[in-house]
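Report of the visiting student (M.T.), summer placement. My assignment was to run the structure pipeline on a short list of targets and document each run. The first record concerns Pullulanase, type I.
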Amino acid sequence: MNIKEIYSEYKNNKSEIKNIFSSDEFKKLYHFNGILGAIYGKEETIFRLWTPVAKEVKVKIYEKEGKNNFRFLFEKKLSDLNGIFEGIILGDLSGKYYRYEVNINDKIQEVVDPYAKAVSINGIYGMIIDLEKTNPEGWINDIKPELKSPVDSIIYETHVRDFTIDINSGVKNKGKFIGLIEENTKYKGVSTGLEHLKELGITHLHLLPVFDYKTVDEEKESGEYNWGYDPLNYNCLEGSYSLNPYNGEERIKEFKEMILNLHKSGIRVVMDVVYNHVFQVENSNFEKIIPMYYFREKYDGSFSNGSGCGNETASERSMVKKFILDSILYYTEEYHIDGFRFDLMGLYDIDMMKEIRVELDKIDKSIIIYGEGWVGGESVLDYSNRSIKDNIYKFGQMQIAAFNDDIRDAVKGNVFDENNRGFASGGIGYCEKLKSGIVASTRHNEVYYKWWANEPYQTINYSSSHDNYTLWDKLQKSLNYVSEDEKIKINKLIATIILTSQGIPFIHSGEEFLRTKISPDGKLIENSYNSGDNVNKLDWNRKIKYKDVFEYYKKLINLRKNHKIFRMDKMAEIEENISFKHCGDNFIYYEINGENIKDYFKKSIVVYNGYERILDLEIEGGEWDLILDGNDIDEQGISKIKNKISIDGRTAIILVQKK
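After the run finished, the structure tokens were exported:
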């Protein structure tokens, strides 16, 4: 096979090219296992690009003049070594910029290296960089916070800009990487920013995309906003979060400084990664380097659109798989990242996710992996080969988790119907679905709902995320006739269910003080991906107004961290030690045996009352300590209970007997 000749002959036959790219013969002849990109050294830099269909490749070197002007210096033709175009340029090129000029079928285009590790503002030029110069003081001695088990994780999702951009955040560098680590920030006596996270007690900070993305002009200091699910340069950081987006080194230094200080504060960092699609295929680096290879196609040669964004990457093709894996490992080793959340994980083939897990385990088994166990549109990837929720069982004992939309919809109602209500808000028919969520969607002989996780660390339990309405706004929509006090009770009940269920809990930032997203005309915003700061910011006034809710979340998190009964490591432990006693439309009562797992709470009774009315419950087994109700959480005991307890409507209780 001579792919250059074939590609030239069949360039208008997309179906034929697709079949060739997917063939074992093509993989055998053209797969490359080595290092790609600009491989920097003080004495020389090696440039290496994989494009077996190109006739010629040159690397063009530029020098920046002023803020954003680039002067061409020279170019070098790269040698074609069976599809690997390689060349060496002597001297120290650190700080210089580069692009490749690629000739495919006599169509010549300049392209940014997909393996570039730094870029100019707005990602127009790759940057040659000495990464050692980007390490902050103490980086070599960075120590990750301890994580004994994946289920010890408590994930808090936020957007870099949202978290500190509010005028009342008390943060100097608002909306920036280093703004996330400013210390001792307060507003009217309450902690904000990093201090808020430390006070809340979460273990992992999940950041919405921080790689270089397309839809924010980094030259504009304000006014543009996006969540960032529109990838441009995967191995580079987003410049709008840097104090100096014109300096490719600076954003790296600041991001590392952020990670280092989060680790010092006891917080691990999760990256939200979006390898499943690009912003625009035609202008993507991938498509300019080897058209039609990196993306899945339909039988007619048009792009498959499982992302809902016009395209989806072909993770099953060996060099796409290599790129994704190389990128994940690069962030792991260079930036000390502690976890990865995969956008639309269902678009990754199962072997791809397995390989990522295997390779990460070689570096650090405590790195967590989770993602959306679904797709965003019609995909040509076979259903049985998608890393979706229904296929999580195929990962065996691997720590690869999926978001649990079952418990999400069970507690508050279907996210695609704003009026639909869940268990906690008066909906009916959720008993078994909620029981399944309580046991982390693992197999349990008292749960009559389809299980999909082999182990609890494969389940992410949550009630809200950046997508759809916030939890509070969902309650406002579905319960617009209910008083605010009642909705607060429901919110607390939902939080209790999520944070006392087995699996890995996940909190949307601001949920702990009833985050809302409101447009200037007073409408609640469901999809705020580009709605701007006024809609998306965390309003720190709400922490003051709803301090009681925040305190409840904080105590729930502390309770979970203190007691293994809420975070068992294995499915077998859950099945052995959790026993369901009653399950109705809006009422669940179960018991936990803590003796077998050596918890200080040797026996516990957990009750969730989603009814509006008070329920009376007879209690056997002698005297119990009430440690949680709708108003407070106190492990020492709020009161003593014997024989009978009245449970307020829309409230949870936990009773315990101690060793």
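The CA atoms of residues 226 and 530 lie 5 Å apart. The chain is about 25% helix and 25% strand. I thank the supervising group for their guidance throughout the placement.
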